[in-house]
């Protein structure tokens, strides 16, 4: 059953490869510097590596936008996004897979009575503006640097041509890695909470987590899309917006790749945090917006006269309509899946404003006066809770996260199912000490573990998402419904 529902994620991955490979190698193929077959092979290989090695960072923000908690729902969400991307691919427009999956998730939120996390949505939408602008700025700066180096190096025309080809290959490989790392969250992110895979041990002491196994499958689907259906869109990007020289094509790919990497690198986030600097949000940004922004940046640097604004307008209109189409398709398809095919597309989530919840919120410095009249009250969904309490973001998100009922039971039978390689010895001992205990909320389990071992405390972990991943894994094992 899981394999059938996962097929929609594979379809979305294929659509992403068919559409977004153009953003990595479109300018190189369009300028005839690299053959399509070479570009497809390099792109396919490095997309898979990027997805498996660095795909986890951006998937967390997407998961906060809407926690799709049923297989049939995840199937519809990815199918809706994949269909909207495929339709735009037929029209030869490089569209945003990120916008497609966001629109589909919001459609699921409406259907399931879930609230779209405003802070995550704001963060993602801000990148839709920041991504092309940042890419254009980086492209302009890189072009000036490269032009300065070429002017002073006095390279022969044929040597310059050779170095440019090598540069395009390296930039394309890096861009493919960044594409896999950043955009695999769009393809497989909604399946992470419902993945049934155990941890997979490989040779040499290596292993793949359930999420990494999903990302590997999604990366392969992207690679197939690159190889089978990406050539037409590559030519639109490479030739349709503005005529690019080979050197300009190299700069464009570098700028695009840097932007995608910035929004996917957990190590960069840790580095900036360690020096008290503002961090770049880890979100799946639009590869299409990054490459188009870079191309337009180069076009404007050269006076803007060669830019084909009609093509740009067509691409921009695709960015606007893609999330709308994906959201509408998602809503309609969810209705049919739930009511015609009798497949549950979401699991009801209830909320209770208990004394423990109010105390926990107060401990986190939130004014809980508005919650007092509702103490002990049970709400059937997030929307009814929000309407009753009347709080605004971000307070309502904090209340929802704390009041959500997610019952877990730690018992000996389920303890035997835990993959101990995922935990340190101290973490395992802390978990064993909770045997026989019941928890109504996920945060209660997290607090109980943190109280028994400092290795369950986020501040003691160098990897910001490691504790979250481990708790998600335990919740999938010990949840009672």
Which features would summarize this protein structure in a list?
single chain; 481 residues; mainly alpha; 3 domains; two-stranded antiparallel ribbon; 6 strands; 68% helix
Mean pLDDT: 84
Order of helix and strand elements from N to C terminus? HHHHHHHEEHHHHHHEHEHHEHHEHH
Strand content: under 5%
Widest sheet: strand ordering: 1-2
Helix proportion range: 55-70%
Number of domains: 3
Evaluate the radius of gyration.
24 Å
- N-to-C span: 19 Å
Model description:
The structure is a single chain. The protein is mainly α. The protein folds into three domains: 2-339, no CATH class; 351-403, no CATH class; 408-478. The chain is built from 20 helices and six strands. It has helices at residues 2-30, 36-54, 56-65, 71-90, 97-112, 118-153, 157-188, 210-229, 231-240, 246-262, 266-274, 287-301, 309-339, 355-363, 382-389, 395-403, 412-415, 425-432, 442-452, 466-478; strands at 200-201, 207-208, 351-352, 378-379, 408-409, 438-439. It has a two-stranded antiparallel sheet with strand order 1-2. A two-stranded antiparallel ribbon has the order 3-4. A two-stranded antiparallel sheet has the order 5-6. Helix 3 (56-65) crosses helix 7, helix 5 runs parallel beside helix 13 (309-339) and helix 7 crosses helix 8 (210-229). The model has no long low-confidence stretch (mean pLDDT 84).
């Amino acid at each position: 059953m899981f394999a059938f529902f996962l097929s929609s994620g594979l379809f979305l991955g294929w659509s992403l490869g068919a559409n977004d490979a153009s953003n990595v190698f479109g300018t190189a193929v369009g300028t005839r510097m690299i053959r399509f077959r070479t570009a497809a092979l390099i792109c396919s290989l490095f997309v898979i590596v990027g997805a498996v090695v660095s795909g986890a960072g951006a998937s967390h923000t997407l998961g906060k936008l809407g926690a799709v908690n049923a297989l049939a729902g995840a199937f519809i969400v990815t199918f809706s996004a994949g269909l909207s991307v495929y339709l735009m691919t037929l029209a030869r427009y490089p569209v945003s897979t990120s916008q497609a999956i966001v629109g589909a998730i919001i459609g699921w939120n409406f259907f399931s009575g879930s609230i779209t996390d405003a802070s995550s949505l704001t963060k993602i939408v801000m990148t839709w503006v920041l991504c092309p602008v940042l890419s254009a700025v980086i492209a302009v700066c890189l072009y000036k640097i490269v032009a300065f180096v070429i002017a002073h190096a006095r390279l022969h025309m044929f040597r310059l041509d050779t170095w440019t080809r090598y540069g395009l290959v390296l930039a394309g490989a890096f861009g493919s890695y960044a594409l896999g790392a950043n955009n695999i969250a769009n393809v497989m992110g909604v399946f992470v909470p419902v993945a049934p895979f155990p941890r997979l041990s490989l040779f040499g002491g290596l292993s793949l987590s359930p999420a990494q196994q999903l990302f590997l499958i999604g990366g392969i689907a992207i690679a197939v899309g690159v190889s089978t259906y990406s050539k037409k869109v590559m030519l639109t990007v490479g030739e349709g917006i503005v005529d690019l020289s080979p050197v300009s094509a190299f700069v464009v790919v570098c700028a695009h790749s840097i932007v995608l990497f910035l929004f996917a690198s957990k190590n960069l986030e840790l580095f900036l945090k360690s020096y008290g600097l503002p961090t770049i949000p880890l979100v799946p940004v639009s590869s299409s917006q990054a490459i188009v922004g870079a191309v337009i940046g180069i076009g404007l640097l050269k006076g803007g006269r060669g830019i084909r604004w009609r093509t740009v307008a067509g691409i921009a209109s695709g960015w606007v309509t893609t999330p709308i189409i994906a959201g509408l398709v998602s809503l309609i398809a969810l209705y049919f899946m739930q009511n015609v095919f009798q497949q549950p597309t979401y699991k009801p989530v209830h909320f209770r404003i208990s004394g423990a919840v109010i105390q926990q919120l107060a401990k986190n410095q939130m004014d809980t006066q508005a919650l007092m009249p509702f103490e002990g009250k049970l709400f059937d969904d997030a929307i009814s809770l929000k309407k009753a309490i009347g709080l605004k973001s971000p307070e309502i998100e904090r209340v929802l996260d704390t009041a959500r009922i997610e019952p877990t039971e730690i018992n000996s039978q389920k303890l035997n199912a835990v993959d101990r390689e995922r935990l340190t010895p101290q973490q395992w001992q802390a978990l064993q000490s909770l045997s026989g205990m019941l928890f109504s909320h996920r945060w209660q389990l997290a607090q109980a573990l943190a109280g028994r071992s400092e290795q369950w405390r986020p501040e003691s972990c160098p990897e910001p998402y490691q504790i979250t991943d481990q708790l998600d894994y335990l919740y999938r094992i010990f949840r009672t419904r």
